[in-house]
Structure formats: C-alpha cells, structure tokens
Amino acid sequence: MMLARRHTEFALEGESLSLHRIALKAPALIAMSLASAVMSARFQARGIISGTVFGIAIALYLAVFEGRRKLDDSAAFVFACCVSWPVSRFVTQAIMFSGVFGASPLGESIFPSCALFIGGSIGAFIVMLVGTVLYAEHHSRAETWLVALLGSLGGGILGLLGGWLEHAVGQHPEGTIPVAVFAVWQVGVALMLGFVLIRDNKRIVSS
C-alpha cells in the first residue's frame, strides 16, 4: 500500500516536472521557430534554404536547452529538414498537377487547402520521424512510426490553420506560400517534437 502510494506520488511529481519544463522552454522554442518561419518565408524561392533554416533553429534549441550537442545528430537532423522542404513541395505539386483534386493551382493567389494539407503532412512526417529516431532514444520502433504518423496528421492540420489565418488577415504575393503557413507549421511541428522529447526524458527519469 505504501509502495503504491509512493509510486503515485512519484508519477505526479514527474508530470509536474514535465509541465514545468514545458512552461520554461516553450517560449524559447516558439521564439526560435517564429524567427525561422520569417526567414523561411523570405527565402522560400531559393531551394533548400527554408528547410535548412528551420533545421538549424531547432538543432540550436536542442543544443542550448536540451543538451543535445552531438554534431552528427544535429547534422543529420538539419539535413532531414533541408530535404523535407523540396520533397514535400515536389510531391504536393505532382499530386495537384495530376488532376486528382481538379484543375492545377497555378496562378491562384491562395494555395488550395488540399495542397497545404498534403505539403504540411509530408514535411512533418519527415521531421518527426528523423527527430524521434535521433533524439528520442527510449521510443520503440512502433512508437517512432506512430509519432511520425500522428505528427504527419498534425502537420497537415497546421498547414490548413496557417492557410486559414492568412486568408483571414489578408492576401500574399501570388505564387508564394503565405508567411502565416510557415509560422503556424514551424511553431506547431517544433512544439510537437519538443513534447515527444520531454516525454522521452521523463521515461529516462522514471527508469
């Protein structure tokens, strides 16, 4: 009885510690993600720069606030983010131009919702999968894939939210992805990955 009570108290303390860590680190993660989003939107026409900027921002956060300073892991994560941008854009364009969702979106001032969802899903899948493999050591293979799939769904929803926000506040230059999409997606994906890492750290403490 006493042992069960102590176990419950320890679990509650662990939950409190996780919430405390989120409250302390979330503002820094949000700030770095927003700065990355602004730069990504500014240089979105220059190939892989957008994804690279996001990867560097998150890798810096992990090094400073999470103590994840292994250069090979950081380099692999930045590379994955770098690749996620052209891959998601290419696959989205291929699907849109195939006619599955109707006429091609070329020339539209606002990207269609399906394109934002597809692109957001693909990019988030790559980032969450690689981030979990590299930094969440205590996740099993099945858990890693589950995180990636749920993160992919979340990334698609974030893309839709960003598009809705941009549509609500005003227009953007024709043929470009709205700044709001970058901001909502990058902040949201960063927070999802941060939550996964906090849960992984909690497993280390409880074990």
Task: Provide an overview of this structure.
The model is unreliable at 1-15 (pLDDT under 50). Helix 3 runs antiparallel to helix 4 (113-135), helix 4 (113-135) runs antiparallel to helix 5 and helix 4 runs parallel beside helix 6. The protein has one domain. 37% of the residues are buried. With 207 residues, the protein is mainly α. 80% of the residues lie in helices and 0% in strands. It has helices at residues 2-42, 49-65, 71-97, 113-135, 141-169, 179-206.
Condensed summary:
The protein has 207 residues and is mainly α.
Coarse structural class: mainly alpha
Distance between the termini: 21 Å
State the low-pLDDT regions, or none. 1-15
- The percent range for strand residues is under 5%
Number of individual domains:
1
| DSSP summary: helix tally | 6
Radius of gyration: 19 Å
Shape: globular
The description of the largest β-sheet is: none
N to C succession of SSEs: HHHHHH
Helix content percent band: over 70%
Overall pLDDT score = 81
Number of DSSP-assigned strands: 0
Question: Could you outline the blueprint of secondary structure elements for this entry?
Answer:
Elements: H1 2-42, H2 49-65, H3 71-97, H4 113-135, H5 141-169, H6 179-206
Helix pairs in contact: 1-2, 1-6, 2-3, 3-4, 4-5, 4-6, 5-6
